[in-house]
Amino acid sequence: MRITLAARPVGFPKVSDFELGYAQRPTPKARQVLVRLIYLSLDPWLRSSMGGQESPHLPPIQLGELLPAHAVGHVVKSEDPDFREGDVVEGLLGWQEYAVVAGAELRKLDPNLAPISTALGVLGMPGLTAYFGLLDVGDLQPGETVLISGAAGGVGMLAGQIAKIRNCRVVGAATTEARTSWLCDELGFDAAFTTNNGGVLRDKLEASCPDGVDVYFDNVGGEVTDEAMCLLNEKARIVVCGQDSQDNLEKPEPGPRWLHRLIAKQARIQGFVVSSYSRLFSEGRAQLARWLHEGRLKNHEEVAQGLATAPQAFIGMLQGKNLGKQLVQVGERYRSPSL
Amino acid sequence: MRITLAARPVGFPKVSDFELGYAQRPTPKARQVLVRLIYLSLDPWLRSSMGGQESPHLPPIQLGELLPAHAVGHVVKSEDPDFREGDVVEGLLGWQEYAVVAGAELRKLDPNLAPISTALGVLGMPGLTAYFGLLDVGDLQPGETVLISGAAGGVGMLAGQIAKIRNCRVVGAATTEARTSWLCDELGFDAAFTTNNGGVLRDKLEASCPDGVDVYFDNVGGEVTDEAMCLLNEKARIVVCGQDSQDNLEKPEPGPRWLHRLIAKQARIQGFVVSSYSRLFSEGRAQLARWLHEGRLKNHEEVAQGLATAPQAFIGMLQGKNLGKQLVQVGERYRSPSL
């Protein structure tokens, strides 16, 4: 089974924008590997790729093309001497049950080090995005106030915890009270407020950030961002990781112009893509793994069952229904060599 | 004569927002200096101070207070051993004919090095703003395309010429065709387009920047900025120097949200105030003076006559009626010691 782009979404994607199809199990050629997927990662960036916009991660995809995604799987057949049957690997495998990819594009995982699904979350792109985005792009300093939008998502929940490890005051913006409670009670955020539940956003933001905002890690954009711009401290840094609230609008919505607010505050806004840090990934992963093993970084996953549920799970994630990292279980972990 | 804030402007300032008054000629105390103003500098940042907003340069001024401004004058009486009668000085002297200030807050000029009015333009805050804003904040590299909004103003005309000296492609946005012609014909800009004269801004911008925009030096904000965000090259830098188009709006106008455009491009927006570079001012002034003497940097001033004309000249400048640096001649240059 594989899932392709049936139609470019208008507004929020619909199930009919996805097409389930069947394909022959492909055969690897020299230096290629056949992988059976176990976990598929659902990430907000896919929405802009589907819409034909440029994405920080991939060129826009065309109608009829396989939907791209990072995934974890096990090797079923290998024509690359670096891999053998049963190896657990991570790579850009796409929305399908079987993928053939060059061995050079895969990363071998050690299943004894951490649950293999973490290769798509805390020890994968989301973890590295939070790590480099906050510490390097955001140049986070101890004691600062960090505001995170989309704080209950796969990247946001990690960014907040990393900021806590760095002794910052951490404030999260999320869609519902269930999520803001979770951020404070389970992940140790200092404060959190809802963006969709009524009330005046400015008031909620001011109450949560009495000392202003030093670093704003923005996954969402829109009104939270407009209001955050009014609370910036001197030399504040805004890390633009995603603008998920804008990706699903049928028509772009205008907002207040706030660039003048940056001048006196000497504030900086930096857009970034984690791939620009690729030569530092090992270092980042090692630190994230230490924190994970020390229990200082909590992981949270929601796992939809079966590739066929991926479209609905993806739409739900865009609507903010998941808590933490959203995965799809595509297949079972390798158990015997008799595949 | 002195001019104070009579009313906070709504929209563009009106002459009635200013109040002309008379004051006794003040007497300097110990370490103070009495200065007779010669040239008063009119700068767009004063508009936000008048409106009660925070300004990068000064706290908001209150009703009835003297309007602040940089100015050049000569010393009439000195109680500071570092200054003597006839010295030409520059400082934050305000909209008045005579100012008493601490000697420590004055900078002595050498009238033989350059015309004294340049201390308010190319060798003053506007020059230093263009210099550090473009070269340090903007991290300008040879061969890049630089877009400058408000290009015919006191800062913009210098930023463009500095970028030409650094072998960049320089594109200016200005209000009228007289100004865009001046930018190209007199100052050597590679291209310039009008922002107020009809036509589709996006088309004009694209035609002027066929290779995209690497550095955008923004003095104006609003629609030019919205469109510039669509043409950013990878790792583009946006220097937010001013947002003059927004300062005179009675009601803030909304604009398109464009933060998502920064992500894939890894672009950076930096707000800045030139005062953060104060320890490098001498170095910057020395370089600007060399370029000025070599004829590589052209100066252009418009000089209104008499302090009483300052309000109208200031309003005209906000409406984009001046070309280059706008000054007011308040008094004559010191000629004899018999004052």
Characterise the protein shown here.
With 339 residues, chain A is of the alpha/beta class. Helix content of chain A is 24%, strand content 25%. Chain A has helices at 45-50, 125-137, 156-165, 177-185, 201-208, 223-228, 244-247, 261-265, 281-293, 310-318, and strands at 2-5, 18-21, 32-41, 70-78, 88-92, 98-102, 107-108, 145-149, 169-174, 191-194, 213-218, 232-240, 254-256, 268-271, 301-305, 325-329. In chain A, strands 3, 4, 5, 6, 7, 15 and 16 form a 7-stranded mixed β-sheet that branches. In chain A, strands 10-9-8-11-12-14 form a 6-stranded parallel β-sheet, sandwiched between helices. The longest helix of chain A is centred in the middle third of the chain and has 13 residues, at 125-137. The model of chain A has no long low-confidence stretch (mean pLDDT 94). The A-B interface holds A 48, 54-56, 218, 221-222, 225, 240-243, 246-247, 252-257, 259-273, 276 and B 48, 54-56, 218, 221-222, 225, 240-243, 246-247, 252-257, 259-273, 276.
